[in-house]
Amino acid sequence: MEDTVVFEEPITAQKCSENLSSVEDAIYVIGGKWKLKIIIVLQENGNIRFNELQRSIQGISARVLSNELKDLELNGFVKRVVHADQIPVVVEYISTDYSRTLKPVIIALSQWGKTHKRKIKENF
Amino acid sequence: MEDTVVFEEPITAQKCSENLSSVEDAIYVIGGKWKLKIIIVLQENGNIRFNELQRSIQGISARVLSNELKDLELNGFVKRVVHADQIPVVVEYISTDYSRTLKPVIIALSQWGKTHKRKIKENF
DNA sequence: CGGTATCCATGTTGATACTG
DNA sequence: CAGTATCAACATGGATACCG
User: Fold this and answer.
1) Name one Pfam family in it (chains A, B) (predicted).
2) pTM of the model
């Protein structure tokens, strides 16, 4: 009548409202069209400059990127580093340790996205 | 020239653009403020009616819920079941097997959200 | 280069009312 | 109950120009 082995966190009814609120919190900070993408590119590159970053992310405008970066910085996912010793001043963005805690989320999303794409292709 | 053991998908530079595009695909279908929440509630309940669902999801309006459900149905995450034999007609929404493939994503987001909330509290 | 300011088009949402 | 229609309010986003 009962599973003897629990191999992964099951989605139980009790857990679920908790789940819901945690997922809500997560979506609140890393949701939206761009945030995770920026975080991924930043993790890929170690350090990257504004225009380079903009070029890396298809379709984002300077204004939106600028706003997103401010947001991400406030929440501790990104660090803005200014090299004032160079002229013209060089600004670099780097990902933080905290942004690396998102790795499991990124992996899960990436894997799901990959199989989803496969599924979509099969249906045509 | 080939890895003999792959123990977890590492975030490497080569993998990353692939990552990026997969995550993009995922966000495209399950992104936004409501979709994942609806999916979670549906998975929790097995079957649930429209107004019940609306009450379960804090702050969503009937119009938005209706649109989201249509979208989710189109993408195979939700099934709309009409019990025409009852008067007035009862409509129930149930989650599909395909929506269950999102379990790892939900778990990852939920766990991250939980520790994030903890972190935020500590900083005050 | 690394942004910001402004304007404007478009999209999204909320409130309310209404229907079968 | 299970939505839909309508309209107004607001948010978001692109385009362009501009600045230090």
Assistant:
1) HxlR
2) 0.88
